Amino acid sequence: MTRILLLGGTTEASQLARALAEAGVEAIFSYAGRTAQPVEQPLPTRVGGFGGVAGLESFLREEGITHVVDATHPFAAGMSRNAAEACDAANIPLCALERTPWQARPGDDWCHVPDIPAAVAALPEAPARVFLAIGKQTLDAFAVKPQHHYLLRLVDPPEAPLPLPDTAVEIARGPFTLDGDLALLRQHAIDRIVAKNAGGTGARAKLDAARALGLRVILIDRPEVPARQVFATVAEVMDWLSHSARLGV
Ligand SMILES: NC(=O)c1ccc[n+]([C@@H]2O[C@H](COP(=O)([O-])OP(=O)(O)OC[C@H]3O[C@@H](n4cnc5c(N)ncnc54)[C@H](OP(=O)(O)O)[C@@H]3O)[C@@H](O)[C@H]2O)c1
Would the keyword Iron turn up in this protein's UniProt record (predicted)? Predict the structure, then answer.
């Protein structure tokens, strides 16, 4: 019997959860537990880490999981590495539902950087007004450039004091719109953006708004993850699941 573990935390994972529920496929949805009120899913849901590769491998065996779909964010590389290793050890087929990275269009002013430290280094020495659109987990790295004003957009209000002295915090959950992001950038007189190359449509609005306003974007490249079967759409994942289930995999 097919029994899926769906590693979530993205809009695409929620779309796949709907498709699995509608098709009546048995599946467990998994959240890391980073947000206070995660989006409700139409599947049985668990929250929290598994306890590394060994913990995930035990979970796969105990729950009788037959397939794993990694639909985590492209920057959740730790989870993706663990999933690849645990599936390998437990001999369970794995695929990823992954958004295509964004490509620059005419008029975009993008500076590509490999990681967070390089994004920090790419900020100027002179005070600037920066939309730091990278979530909450890696803000500490920007503390070495306290001269900038930072606009943060977070899902939940910060629980601890922020490591940056001059911030404005916008509490919001995507997807975002071009009009909304244009208004936000103008309201805060932002002159540059730091973003992760997440891909997809829901977070793209800020890049389109930056182009419209002629702002520079410091775009962080995706971290490396192990090679695995990758699909860009929910339909392809559903095909893969039904195909491998028919083959008795
Ligand atoms: N990184 C981003 O920019 C970003 C943006 C939007 C959404 N998200 C979502 O936020 C979550 C955490 O991202 P992250 O970058 O912190 O991940 P990460 O650094 O790759 O993962 C760190 C640890 O968190 C646990 N974890 C991550 N995703 C999990 C999941 N779906 N279910 C159960 N445990 C999970 C695992 O703990 P154990 O080792 O204990 O199993 C993992 O080793 C992911 O679900 C991701 O899709 C991340």
Answer: no
